Amino acid sequence: MGGAMPFPRADAPTPALMLDRAALDRNIARMAAFAAGRGIALRPHAKTHKSAEIGRRQIAAGAAGLCCAKLGEAEALAEAGLSELHLTSPVVAAAAIARLAALNGRAGGLSVVVDHPHNVRRLNAANAGAARPLTVLIDVDPGNRRTGVASPGAAVALAREIAACDALILGGVQYYCGAQQHIQSFAARRAAIVERTDDLRAVLEALRAAGHAIPLVTGGGTGSFMIDAALGVLTELQVGSYIFLDREYGECALAAGGAPAFEPALFVDATVISANAAGRVTVDAGLKALSADAGPPLVAGALAADAHYLFMGDEHGAIVSDEGPLPALGGRVTLQPGHCDPTVNLYDVYHVLDGETVVEVWPVTARGRST
Amino acid sequence: MGGAMPFPRADAPTPALMLDRAALDRNIARMAAFAAGRGIALRPHAKTHKSAEIGRRQIAAGAAGLCCAKLGEAEALAEAGLSELHLTSPVVAAAAIARLAALNGRAGGLSVVVDHPHNVRRLNAANAGAARPLTVLIDVDPGNRRTGVASPGAAVALAREIAACDALILGGVQYYCGAQQHIQSFAARRAAIVERTDDLRAVLEALRAAGHAIPLVTGGGTGSFMIDAALGVLTELQVGSYIFLDREYGECALAAGGAPAFEPALFVDATVISANAAGRVTVDAGLKALSADAGPPLVAGALAADAHYLFMGDEHGAIVSDEGPLPALGGRVTLQPGHCDPTVNLYDVYHVLDGETVVEVWPVTARGRST
User: Fold this and answer.
1) Which residue of A89, A90, A315 is in closest CB contact with B69?
2) What letter would DSSP give residue A216?
3) Across the A/B interface, how many CB contacts are shorter than 8 Å?
4) Is the Cβ–Cβ distance between B288 and B348 less than 8 Å?
5) CA–CA separation, A319 and A350 (whole Å)
6) pTM for this model (two decimals)
7) Given A122, A220, B80, B262, which is the most exposed site by the fewest CB atoms within 10 A?
8) What is the distance of C-alpha B159 from the center of its chain?
């Protein structure tokens, strides 16, 4: 890891997180061009990559800032020099609210969602007298019951509460249709987002009718951004996974509705450590190298078409194929993760590839920063 | 994290990995007493805890050493001062073999499994001329096709290969029935282990008939140790999860066949960050805080009997209950992980509890050391 660069991909100790830098940069450029063409802002979600370097590349391509899922993630990225960070989950615990106020004092452009009047009052108290007020966005629940206010009335009541707080500024609304992102059919996904967006319009009308300016409406994801852009209600997209394109998103019809085609950029390389059974070999990447929540990774590269991966416990997986030759003992296999975000969170570094050469190692800046 | 100790459990930033030290020590003592009473050695598996401190406690209670799943895990524990480490997976890549030889030079009592003659020859070449030969164990496949030789004949051929190697010593045999550990019914689990052990006897007889001394026969796990001890073929147990008792093992009948009863010692504490929906609240622990491979965690503590956890994405979970009151916004929830090993690997530290007070923070010494 601390060795001299560059070195051949095949020399990286496995399991190794591999990032195809050219594919990453193409994906970043494609989404940036799409957003610029539609006149919608981009604030890519850093929970996907947890990387200061990737965040800087997204901002260099025109992003307005980054989203973070957790306060610890935002702290880590701010420490690495990034600003314009938006926290997409409420910050509620007393100690976390104090950390948030401290971060707002040192990182420009910070914002956080709120969905409850108690939380609004506590955020206001923690920021009272601060040089810089804290920007809060009203999180609106699209019916998924994860976070957010559940009705236009609750949104208006929360806006009134925020307006009464000297240390807070109402920055806008967040509306994230998480459960809808992975609907595989484009038509079914579009229908779900259209229906949800009608609810969002009702919330925005109620807020504006009550006299609240809502300059920012942020939301969307890699499954819905092309639909959101066409509907014209969101002003900013929180897309995350487009940079890597995991197996789960690869199974969704994404290149529809005018969206660009993304390409897989993130892989896990593994080594065959046992080859004693017919039609299968065992590799050194299991549940601690590949998050299993969205199913198995895809086998990439030049194996037979029927070659597939099976989880074999914490440390192992099987590559199974009846049709074709399998790599020999000591050979390498490249896997495309089933779900990129929790897989990246298992690793300390990205091995950054130029072709088949590791040319850089980038830290996973906010790995494990879940608090 | 770096704050002054002790502090109240409720002050730890969440999601937080919590370890009930008294329960841990009782579990360690129970297994040690069981093994001593049956005259079988213990080499607990460090892949469960990845902790030098917990390993030291197991050794202080009489363990002969520790198992490691990965070379990086063994390197991390050796660096923390532990020795008598056994690697339960083959080490195959050329660079890894070189690291293994270096580790053998500085850590006493190292051993590794082998399951292929090519690997034996490479290990021998890498250790040629070393002051200390490398101890290798023949890994025997109990029919799970993960690692191991697949027949008595292959075991004898491998033993012959090892005997011809100046830099290697044949230390014994490993036989790990991984797929059988989680059979919930004790009778069905026992029947499966009895059948597999007949195969192991055939391998051992063939090896001894060919003139090879097999002083050590290591294997078993938290689901089978009481069965293995009664069968009397294994000389050493590789039990791992008994120290924590996750939900998955808790659903197996373990306290049968003379085995002691273990108790849950590992938990994840989470905070309610949204409470706007009837019959549920959202907590700040999702796929990056709790491994999902074995299903959801259990809700511990004083909630209604129907309270259960649902994964809600990378960063969130729902606590759902129709019957009883749920914790309020900002309240805490304690969860018992579905699968302890990959959950521990998500965290940098254990918060060590004495009652409801965090009295120490122990590093997860080998977190992420998967190579």
Assistant:
1) A315
2) E
3) 190
4) no
5) 23
6) 0.97
7) B80
8) 27
